[in-house]
Amino acid sequence: MKKIPLILSTILACALSAQAKLNVVATLPDFGSLAREIGGDKINLVVLAKATEDPHFVDARPSFVVSLRNADLLIDGGAELELGWLPPLLQNARDPKIEIGKPGRVQASQGIRLMNVPANVTRAAGDVHALGNPHFTVDPIIAKAIAQHIAQSFSALDPANAAFYEANYKKFEATINAKLQEWGAAMSPFKGQHVVAYHDSWPYFAHRFGVNIDIFLEPKPGIPPSPSHLTEVIAQVKAQKVKAIIVEPFHDRRIAEKVASATGAKVVEFSQFPGGLPGTDNYVKLIDTLVSRLAAALK
Amino acid sequence: MKKMILMTLAIFPLTTGLAQEVTPVSASSPAPKVSNSTPAAAADVEALRQQVQSLTETVKALQQQVKDQQAALEKANLTGESGLPQNPEPSPIAAAEGSPAPGASAPPRFPTEDTSVVASATAPAVSGTPVPGGFPTTDTSVVTSAPETISSTGVGASLTQPITIGGGRNYMNISFDGLFALAYSSAKDLDHIEVGDHDPQQRGFNARNIELALDGAVDPYFEGFANIVFKLDNDNQTDVEVEEAFMQTTSLPFNLQLKAGQFFAAFGRLNPTHPHTWDFVDTSLVNGLFLGPDGLRGVGAQTSWTLPLPWYSQLIFASQNGRGSTGFSFRNPGDDGMFFDRITTDREARGLQDFVWIPRWENSVDLSPTQVVLAGVSGAFGSNETGANSRTQIYGVDFLYKWKSSHAEGGFPFVKWQTEFMYRRFEAGRGANESFPVAETFHDWGLYSQVLWGFKKGWVAGIRGDYVDMQDSKFTDDLDRQSRWRISANLTWYPTEFSKIRLQYNQDSLEENFFLSGRQVESVFLQWEFILGSHGAHKF
C-alpha cells in the first residue's frame, strides 16, 4: 500500500517529463528514422507501421488513435501510400495540431518531385498511385530534403531546441554528402545494369545510383505474380543477363527464388525502411546495406 | 557524451560569429583584471587574442565563400543552367572541419544535390528561429516557388482543401459498390431463413446491396457522409434506402465529436458496418433478429468522447427515433400493423422515454506488436409498440482479437476472432386497445462467434457459429420467435481490395417450439462484389 504514492509520483513525473518533449508520430519507419536523426532525445517518437510489413496495408489500430491524439507533430508521406489506413485514424484522433497546413504536420512529399505520375488513372493498371510513386525516401538527396523539412518544423514547434535540431540536420546533411561519395563510387561500376524487383518501390534509388530497376515480378503493382508473367520475366532476365532480384521482407521470397534458380540471378533482400533488414537501425546504415548488398550481387 | 558533442557543434557557429563583434570589447574591459594577475596569464590572453583573430579571419573568409557560392547558384538558377545535377563545392562545414583547401585537385564528386527531385525548399521559412550563421546554402538557394501541397491522405484533416480522386481534385469522394449473390437453399422460404435485409432472399440471383457512397469535408467544421442503397426485391423491383446520411464535427475540443442525421447505431461490431465489409454473405442471426433486418439505425444524434487514458477508450452515446423497421425491437409498427402477434400502437413520441437511447463503451489494447484486442459493451433502451407502456432493453458485449504477421503483405496473413453476445428483455403488452389476451416479458439471448483466417495474400477462410434462444411462449406463434442455430463456412478470394468472390455454406437448424416444428436447412451462396471510385479506408 505504501508503494502507491511512489508509483503515482513516478507516473506523474513521467507524464511531466513527457510533456517537455515534442510528441512526434511518423506513419512509416523511414520518416521515423529521419525524425530521430533530427530530434535525438528531445522528442518522443512513435512509428505506426512496422519496418517489415507492407506499408500499403497497415491496420488502423485503435492504439494508433491514442498516439495521434497526443501528437504535437505528424510526419506522413503525403503521396497516398498510407491512403488505406491513415484517414480513419485521423478522423478518430480529432487532433487539430496535426491537420494539413498546421506547423504540426510534415508531409514528406512536399517539395519533392514525384516520379512516374500516371497520365491516366485507371485501376486496370493495378494499384497505381495517382500522385506518383510514393517510395521516395530511399534517395538520400530526397532524405536530406525531408530531414530539413522535419528540422524546420521541430524548430518552429520547439524554438528552445532550435539550435539542436539545426545542428543535427547539418550533421545529417554532412554525413549524407560524404556518404554519397562512397555509395556513388560503390555503384558506379554497375551503371545501366538491369535489376528485377518484386514491386515497383525503387525508381528513386535506381535514379540516384544509375541502375535500371525496371523488371517486376508483379505483373502490375499490387497484383500477385502469375505463372505466365513469371515466364516472361525469366526470359527477360536471361536476355538482359540480370544478376539481382530485389525482394522486400513482406514479399514471398520463394517466387523470387524460383526465378533466380531458373536464371542464375541472385535474390537480394532489400527494405525501404530502416529496421527492415538486420543491422539497419538508422537511415545511413540502411542505404549502406542496400548499396553493399546490391553491389555484391551485381559483381 | 554524444549530446555534449552535438551541443558544441550547435554552439560553435554562433560563438565564432559573435567573436567578430566581441574582439574590440575584450581588448579593453577584461584586460585590467588580467593585468593584476601573473604575466604568464597576460601572455596567455595575448595568445588567445591572436587565435581569436585568426579564427575571425577564417570565418570571414568562409562567409565570403558562402556568399560567392550563393550568388553563383542564384545566377545558375536564374539562367536555368541547373537542369542537371551539379557538383557543388565542398560545404563550409566540411571545409571548416579540416578538409583540403577547395580547388586543390578534388576527385570527381558524386552529386549531393538534385534539383530534379527536390522541387523547392521543403517548407516555408520558419519564422522566429533565425538560422545560425554558416547554414548550408544549397537548399535555401533553390527556393523557386511556394511548395505545392497535393494530398488526400488527410481526408479527415484537410478540411478546406478539395479531396482528390485519382490525382484530380474534387470536393467529394464518390464510390459505388455492387454486391450480388447466387443462392441455393433446401428451404423455399429463404427470405425467412436469412434474417438480414441485404442477405440473399430467394433461390437464384440476388442483388440486395448496390450502394452509392459519398463523403467529404463540408467546411472547416463538419464532414458529411451518405450511403444510398438500391436493392432489387424478389420481383426485380428497385427499392431505395437512405441507409446513412449524416454530418459530424471535426474540430470540437476535448476529443469530443458530434454526429447528426440518419446513421447506424454504434451497437457492437457488426451493426454499424455496411454489408460489403462483412466477412460473411449474411448478417448474424442475433443481429438480424434483435437489432432488425436492416440493423439498428435511424434519425438521431450522437456524441462520442475518447477518454484521456493511455489506451484507446471511447464512450459513445446516441439517441434515435427508433421508429419503423429500422428500430426493429423498438417503435416498430411491424408488418401489416402486427408485431409478435400484437396489433401495434403506432403513435407519436410522448416524451424522451420513447426515443431509443444507445450507449457504448469500447476499449482496445495492443497485446503485442502483432496482436490487438478490442472489447465493448453496448445498450439500447426504449419503448415498443406492443402495449401502452411496454419497453425494450437490449444489452450487448463484443470482443475482437486480431493477429497480423509482422511481415504482412497486402494485410496477409492474419487471424481475426470476433464474438458478440446480446440479451434482449422485451415487454410484449396486450397490443392496441388491449386486444391481445396476455402481456408477456420475453428474455431472449443470442450470440455469434467467427474466426477468419487470411492464409495467403487475397485469400480468407472463415467459420462462424450462431445461436439465438427465444423464450418459448404458449401465446405467441410469431415465426421470428423460434430458437435456432447456424454453422457457416466460407472461402473468399479478393483479387484486389476492390473486388471479391466468396463461396459460403450454411447449415441452419430451427428448433421446435409450442407452435412451430423443428427443421434443418442447408444453403450455398456464391457472392461477388465490385467497388468503383475512391479508395475506401479500412476501419479497424
Q: Which range best describes the helical content of chain A: under 10%, 10-25%, 25-40%, 40-55%, 55-70% or over 70%?
A: 40-55%
Number of strands of chain A: 8
CA distance, first residue to last residue of chain B: 43 Å
User: Element order, helices and strands of chain B?
Assistant: HHHHEEEHEEEEHEEEEEEEEEEEEE
Major sheet of chain B, described briefly? 16 strands, antiparallel, barrel
In percent terms, what proportion of residues of chain A is strand?
Answer: 5-15%
**What's the overall average pLDDT of chain B, rounded?**
81
Tell me the span between the first and last alpha carbons of chain A: 67 Å
Rg over C-alpha atoms of chain A, rounded to the nearest angstrom? 21 Å
Main-sheet strand order of chain B equals 3-4-5-6-7-8-9-12-13-14-15-16-17-18-19-20
Please provide the ordered H/E string of secondary-structure elements of chain A: HEHEHEHEHHEHEHEHEH
Helix content of chain B: 10-25%
Oligomer type: heterodimer
Q: What does the average pLDDT of chain A come to?
A: 92
Total of helices of chain A: 10
Shape of chain A: globular
Please mark out the parts of chain A with pLDDT under 50 across 5 or more consecutive residues, or reply none: 13-18
Strand content of chain B: 35-45%
Tell me which protein chains meet in the greatest interface and how many residues each side has.
A-B, 97 and 89 residues
